[in-house]
Amino acid sequence: MYDGKSSTRKSTMAVIPEHMPKVQALLSELDVDREALLDYYKSGHAQTNGKLYAMDMFVLGVVKRTLSSNHAMQLMVRSWNLVAARTLLRTHIDTGLRFSAAWLVDDPEDFAKKVFDGVQINLMKHGKERMTDSYLISMQLGNFPWLKKVYDNLSGYIHFSNAHINSSLLNIGDDGKFDFRISEYDFDYPEESWVEVLECFREITGLLIVHLAGYSMVKSMSPDEVKAAQAARNKT
Description:
With 236 residues, the protein is mainly alpha-helical. The protein contains 9 helices and 4 strands, in the order ααααββαααββαα. A hairpin with a 2-residue loop joins β1 and β2.
């Protein structure tokens, strides 16, 4: 029960402290990831052969969203806003999963056209399976065994849920009394919480970069080479 004496933290601070060195190092790596993302995008986008494909537009949207998320993640962590950082990580995972869907379908160009026209990816199919988030996650678990658990935990941050209620509680005593936090700052979380968010964010960016590298390679191939590569993939 609430006894009227629970403590609160002031919503403003004169000085915002710096994170521990490991968190600072991971924040610096986000800048490295940003440059790698742009390098692979530019190398693929330059191979237009005078044509602009639907996949070019799809990739453009993915890169734009990723750059925005990368910058926002740095701002959220530096301002000690773990609630917003976790929400942002969930949307970043969404970008990675839906970009990966283009590499499952037989015709990525047709897939990209449908996305551009507003068709929901979870209504499209890979073989007989609808490409729901759950299915796309299952296709990535070999490389990212943590993905399902983190995705499930973070989904509560998209719509208001018990995740937001729990984030405001500091502790609950055996007598039913509790301390809570009314603040935009999340100073009470351990270093591991911030590290987890940043490491997961970077791994999803890595997934995006791998696919961008593949797209860059495809853009440099002739139509016959692309068909041969698709035929070889379909045999595996």
